[in-house]
């Protein structure tokens, strides 16, 4: 367990830790308790009433955050011929086919997301051991294996994030930077929650959204009130 310093414990005293806040109040409390000298990322963790060991209860998906993540995302695209130009025109940072695969086999992974055309996946599959553990492997479910490279690249650049429930039943995702302000952070958080609710597995029993915490990179977690979410999710 990470050790926290004096500033962290001082930050925890800035709000009532026993309270469950509305989204707006909670985001305000988290931002207000931040103490780092950089523009911290605001992260959310959502505890779901699912058992990820069962394939039919695995929650994973993507959402385009209305205001993006505040992070510059470097996109690598595996494509050939005219598709290379399409990817570059859409804003891809690195584009190539066999030579890009060889570069990555040589140890280079200086990018944040990867997209591939379906015809490249036979070659890209060789990179499974390198890209898989880093969460960089293109896949159909997240829309990163597609011939519509322009759409895929533009969505990622605009703030499309991927998420999946971990073995503890928790989804972790960024919802922006502190500098966004509470209103924009809330709109991003709302978009994420709406997507999670839509992805509720039919086999999930009982309460679906069990808990929501929000925190900044260095700051303490703030608990949010899930009542309104549960009503929307009929959970």
Written description of the protein model:
The chain is α/β, with parallel strands linked by helices and 235 residues long. Helix content is 32%, strand content 20%. The chain has 9 helices and 9 strands. The protein has helices at residues 6-12, 23-32, 82-90, 98-105, 121-124, 128-131, 149-158, 182-198, 227-233; strands at residues 41-48, 60-64, 75-78, 94-96, 113-116, 160-164, 170-177, 209-216, 222-224. The strands form 3 sheets. The chain has a 4-stranded antiparallel sheet with strand order 7-1-8-9, covered by helices on one side. Helix 3 links the parallel strand 3 and strand 4 (94-96). The protein is globular. The two termini are 32 Å apart. The model has no long low-confidence stretch (mean pLDDT 90).
Dominant shape:
globular
Specify the helix fraction band: 25-40%
Decide which structural class fits the backbone.
Answer: alpha/beta
Could you tell me the mean pLDDT?
90
Strand content: 15-25%
Terminal CA distance reads: 32 Å
Question: In angstroms, what is the radius of gyration?
Answer: 19 Å
- Give the low-confidence spans: none
The SSE order reads HHEEEHEHEHHHEEHEEH
Strand elements, count: 9
Q: For the largest beta sheet, what order do the strands appear in spatially?
A: 7-1-8-9
Main beta sheet? 4 strands, antiparallel
Q: If helices are DSSP runs of H or I spanning 4 or more residues, what is the number of helices? A: 9
